[in-house]
Design goal:
The complex is a heterodimer of chains A (about 80) and B (about 375). With about 80 residues, chain A is an alpha+beta fold. Chain A has a 5-stranded antiparallel β-sheet with strand order 3-2-1-4-5, with no helix packed on it. In chain A, strand 2 and strand 3 form a beta hairpin. The longest helix of chain A is centred in the last third of the chain and has 19 residues. In chain B, the strands form 2 sheets. In chain B, strands 4-3-5-6-11-10 form a 6-stranded mixed β-sheet, with helices on both faces. A 5-stranded parallel β-sheet of chain B has the order 2-1-7-8-9. In chain B, strand 5, helix 8 and strand 6 form a beta-alpha-beta unit. Classes of the chains: A alpha+beta (about 80), B alpha/beta (about 375).
């Protein structure tokens, strides 16, 4: 099952393992499948591994698109 | 990031998107049928009531083969049951829902393990490897099932087992690739699909290029979608634009998580450890190069080789179960005579009722049982 909700990186060690905050719970995660992850980043975790990092800029673009649709509908 | 989640579930935006979708379909001269490939998309579509709202807006959503538990044929489950019931000092490690799949030999959950053997539910392949390292006197086999989302984790775990030379660890692989399965569905031509919602997290690994043949060779549009209700509607709206404009392509709605190239680290470890194989999918049959298996040099970590397993394809099919037709989008779960009667979440008859990602489980949970299909 895909966990669709992103988790926030809390800590990461040199070997690539660390912890995320997933909906308020601290979970051990392996970051070896990602490059350049830092605490504070948002990631998607699957089967104990972080598989992708969230892109803030892209998220804002989707947000802007959704607001635009809502606004057009309201007019 | 949490701010965005609110907008992605906002009801007024949902209504606006549904209005947009309705206007787009009313201009088309043919019915629109979109296959959501991923089981987690099926879950969102039903949890938020989008299935019937979309029907009203002129879009028929049909579930695809996006549940790894569902498409893994029973002979693989039976091989796992045989291993743990016939061998002593043996641990069969598996993701939880795999243990509940019914077969002619029962399920991993109901099977009685041989003395000193057990079935252990794990959340990660790494957990299975740690189990082997911590229990050197026991043989540990991980039932490694998954799509591209899970495959890199399994490949990396085998790589680590090989580096650390853990002799008592192996994997029974059931690794499935989504693009060849979609080609098989299009080739069979049984399901009139006007567009695809591509799976979000499979795409996070593979990127967009592996879907290119779908628009270029078959002229079928598609969009990579996120998992919130308004993600799905945005993606459907984009698929409708492609249909209207006669420009089939791949729209990336889930850009916050998926990059066009995918995850290069994950792709590299898959390539290093695994190679394509022809594979038999439940319902879809044998599909060329639709599976991955461990390369020969890692055969000591391949449970098939290590235990000389001879798997007879198709031998485990359960008579009466119509999961295969559900997985091909030929019937809707309530059209199966067993649905909600002989087959329910408490006593599943087939795998599509077992998994949280299974279409039958989801239809049952969200009360689509009365629907005629």
């Amino acid at each position: 099952m895909c966990l669709a909700i992103p988790a926030k990186v809390i800590q990461i060690d040199a070997a690539g393992s660390g912890k995320v905050d997933y909906l308020g719970t601290k979970v051990k995660v392996d970051f070896s499948l990602l490059e350049n992850v830092r605490p504070g980043d948002w990631v998607i975790v699957h089967a104990g591994f972080a598989i992708t990092k969230l892109d803030e800029e892209e998220a804002q673009e989707t947000l802007a698109l959704l607001r635009e649709i809502a606004q057009a509908h309201g007019e | 990031m949490p701010g965005l989640m609110k907008e992605l579930r906002d009801g007024s935006i949902t209504r606006a998107l549904l209005g947009k979708i309705g206007r787009k379909t009313s201009g088309l001269d043919r019915p629109v049928r979109i296959m959501e490939v991923c089981g987690t998309h099926t879950m969102t579509i039903h949890r938020y009531g989008l299935k019937s709202l979309l029907e009203e807006a002129g879009v028929d959503m049909v579930s695809g083969p996006g549940c790894p538990v569902c498409i893994t044929p029973n002979e693989l489950h039976e091989a796992c049951i045989d291993l743990v019931t016939k061998r002593r000092n043996f641990v069969l490690a598996s993701f939880g829902d795999m243990t509940r799949v019914p077969t002619g030999k029962g399920s991993l959950q109901s099977a009685v393990p041989a003395p000193s053997s057990r079935v252990k539910i794990v959340y990660s392949p790494e957990e299975a490897l740690a189990l082997a390292e911590g229990n050197p006197a026991q043989e540990v086999v991980f039932f490694g099932v998954g799509f591209e989302t899970t495959i890199p984790a399994i490949a990396l775990t085998v790589k680590r087992a090989a580096e650390k030379r853990v002799p008592n660890f192996s994997v029974l692989t059931a690794l499935w690739l989504i693009p060849p399965a979609l080609r098989a569905i299009l080739e069979a031509g049984e399901t009139a699909v006007s567009g695809f919602l591509y799976p979000g997290h499979v795409s996070a690994i593979i990127g967009l290029e592996p879907y290119r043949f779908i628009s270029e060779e078959y002229g079928v549009p598609g969009a990579v979608a996120g998992f919130e209700p308004n993600d799905i509607l945005l993606a459907i709206s984009a698929v409708l634009d492609q249909i209207t404009e006669g420009r089939p392509g791949i729209y990336l709605e889930y850009g916050r998580v998926v990059t066009p190239r995918g995850n290069p680290v994950a792709q590299a470890v898959m390539e290093e450890m695994l190679e394509p194989r022809d594979a038999l999918w439940r319902g879809l049959g044998r599909i060329p190069r639709s599976g991955l298996g461990l390369k020969d040099k890692y055969c000591t970590y391949d449970a098939r080789t290590k235990y000389s397993l001879s798997l007879k394809e198709g031998s485990g099919d359960l008579p009466g179960c119509r999961c295969g037709e559900v997985l091909r989008g030929l019937i809707s779960p309530p059209q199966c005579p067993l649905f909600g009667k002989k087959c329910g979440p408490d006593s599943p008859f087939g795998p599509c009722m077992v998994s949280f990602e299974g279409a039958c489980f989801i239809y049952h949970k969200y009360g689509r049982g009365k629907e005629s299909g």
